Fold:
Amino acid sequence: MTISAPAPRVLPDDDAAKYAEWFSCLADPTRVRLLHVVATTPGGMTVGALTQQLGISQSTCSHHIRKLAEVGFLRLHKEGTATRVMVNEACCTGLPHAADVVMGTLAPRPCCPADAPADVHVRALRPEDWPAVRRIYGEGIATGIATFETTVPSRASLDARWLPGHRWVAEIDGVVVGWTALSPVSDRECYAGVAESAIYVDEAYRGRGVGKALIRQQVVEADSAGLWTLQTSIFTENRASIGLHHAAGYRTVGVRERIAQVNGVWHDTVLLERRSDAAYDVC
Structure:
């Protein structure tokens, strides 16, 4: 799938001010060292222990802790006469996310691509669509960078796996040219709002905005249904798909190295997720 470059965007003033405050706070090397020590120490550390670890005076250590706590990087907890310093876990993802936004590798959490082509019609999957869906799935398998599957799953298998109400196909001139579906990540009730996403486009229609139209429908309907997290794992080689998901508000969580093989070749995958506004948690 070929995805055209997104139009230039201006970072919102509020986000720019917030990120500038974060980066300004980290402009001091001692502060960076302090934050690193706390972030890599399970359970945090007392101010006294941090002072000793960093080799600085207690007044200097307390000053830097206060600055880091003011912007939300650190949490402070009183334990008798001592203060325990702990990292704000939300910043472990919030800070990398901010860097991605500023450097242009991740749009500032858009809802979904705004430039989906008018000639692509997205609708709910119907029983008669299954042959086209499975054919397109097979074309994705043939690329070698779309899935670890080596054979197309049966209709019964896909039907049992996919969430009802979150199965969509894209049409151009009445021809099914792509599909997207969500699958539950767990049968545990606490994960009822978390789903795994899949998107496949007919090889003859890649680069025509089919993926944009599909992912737009996917995320809008997921938000409407109350799903709070969508996730997907994409081969690192599949940069078009990674870019498509970034344009829909997915963020990179990390890279899973040598996670599985296709035809005896190990591949890394990028784990991405999209949080709904109700559940999105940043510093």
User: Anything to note?
Assistant: Confidence is low (pLDDT under 50) at residues 1-7. The longest helix spans residues 210-225. Residues 13-102 form a domain with the Arc Repressor Mutant, subunit A fold (CATH 1.10.10.10). The two ends are 34 Å apart (CA to CA).
